[in-house]
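Request: How about a record?
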Amino acid sequence: MAALGLSVGLVVTAAPAAHASDQLQVRYVGSVNDDLGTLQVVAESGSDITAVSAHIVSYGTGKEVARVKPKDFALSSGDRKSGVWRTKEPLHLDQLGDYRVDVELTDADGDHIAQTSAGQLSYYVVAKFSALTVDRRAIDRDHRDIEVSGTLYERWPTRELRPLAGRQVDIDVDYWTQNTVSTDDAGRFTGSVHLDNGAPVQAVFRATGGEPFVLYGESELVQIGVDQIPTRFISQVSSTDIDDGEAVTLTAKVEQQTAQGWVPLAGEAGGILFGPKEGRTETVGGFTTADDGTFSVTFTPWDGGYFQLALDTTEDPFLQPSTGLSDLVHVHHGAVFTDFSALRTDERTVHAEGHMDFPDGFTPGTVLVTVQRSPDGQDWSELSTVEARWDGTGYYFFADLEGSGEAQYRAVYEGGDGFQDAVTDSALVAG
């Protein structure tokens, strides 16, 4: 077998042609990010990779300081044709620093490569923090200072943890440094920070020299919340039933809860909508509370609904944003009779008919008209309820009624929550 030397430092030993594979290659070599003393090799081949070995070489002297044999590697992920091999244990070297890594691979086809400078081992100490402790998980308006405590360790590439004494630790609030403290002989530190809103708090070690040289490290984030003061709306409307085109006035008050009970909240702003709880709403406008926490607004709605109130607390995170809902305001759209008549057809039958109109542009789904009879125009009894239907000129209705003797007849429409009530003039029918 012949050996071919390449300028990139790769040596390939060819197998017999029947078994040759030109896919055997090193894809990556380096330290594991969170475990710098562990070496990993990413490699692939057209057949199973049967052996992985590495040489750790000093950049300064060019001498090999350690050899990692095939038995020292284990497949960590993937498979033997394309996988990640890692050392079973962290490497133990005499000196910290960067090292050149040369790699050799062999596969089941008998191919073998030796690649010089395949990657780099970063053999360093890294800063590591214990879980932070804080004296409160939430601030309130009167308590905004947080005391943060923890322990800083140096994690050696062998995975050994030692307290890191006499080093500076930054305490960051929302990723900005607010306080810098020093660790004691046991690596412990304590510092206070001030918050005006909820934010993440974190301890950070930024490499600043010293022996040994220690790489950057940060603690897990601790989210600090806000204990907000409950708020509420109290409201009333000038009327819960208005005709189409009429205005309604909302009077409301915003309060906050204190140890002494609910008190007015002055100088706070918010917004007002009007409409159904679900569906299309109209913008009424904004409000700012007076010294007694009150505000009012007059509005002409196009249909029934609620005043929907929202308190804007973006300028004061210690206030709980709240919403309010007024009583339901019914808007009664126009309903009128345009004509009505009642005529006797025989001695025992009266024919009544007429038309209705809804002039405001709103029409009920079903138009029910009740025909009534009274012998004296005072006491009325219901005779028949019929459905009025569109006939091109209006909503036409008719009824053939049993009735003898002289009497008065009229038609009545009950509009319910959405329409006005309507009643015709009475029509006198002789006996």
